[in-house]
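Input chain follows. Return structure tokens only.
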Amino acid sequence: MTDTAKLGSFTVGRMGYGAMQLAGPGVFGPPRDRVTALAVLREAVASGVNHIDTSDYYGPYVVNELIAEALHPYPDDLVLVTKIGARRDDKGGWHPAFGADEMTAAVHDNLRRLKRDTLDVVNLRMMFSPHGPAEGSLEAELTTLAELQQQGLIKHLGISNVTSAQLAEARSMAEIVCVQNAYNLAHRSDDTLIDELAAAGIAYVPFFPLGGFNPLQSAALDGVATDLGATPMQVALAWLLQRAPNVLLIPGTSSLAHLRENLAAAELVLSAEAIERLDAVAG
């Protein structure tokens, strides 16, 4: 995989890996198959992935512990991106955790479990549902993160599930190196934002790149996939890579076979005619 892009001061392959699915059902508890979970992480890195997305609230704690077990000591070029802003209860429920003490503890928890002295990138995750962002100031939360960055605990800051107005506020307070929002072939409300970020040299990392809880389904997607001898999901990932040069992908899986399929999507080249057919899906 030779296609790279900037993520702050780092250069990463544009096809990364999202580790969320390594936890148990509902992103809670241990993996169904611990041996395979460790093997997926090791094969991803061995295949050239150097951008892994994670969080200490995946599990909770389970995924970061798996990453450390599988990959530590880490390759020099491996970039680990984590996120904070949530906590889990003992039944797997999700709850906001935006207090200064909570966010500070979350950063230290991520450092400890990932066995890192500094976190490469920390995303401030706003909201915790697939229903999209909501307006509101990020000032208090970003102030806390900026202080932790000044202490040397965080190298770069990102934001997740945010609006254009929140991005503007965040950029007025600190350097923002990436935005993680929901975006895929069918859900394209961030089209303008992606282009603005590309012009500013800021990475855009779509979550739910394959539809999330409602996997992408489209006759056009199926048709292009048939023409290319690929799977529809591979085509959906390839479309994202060709959407803009600042798009970084982090498709997640707990399966070695699906990992290989996802990584192979980076080699697909979509013709102008195929892209035109796919662009119409969101029309």
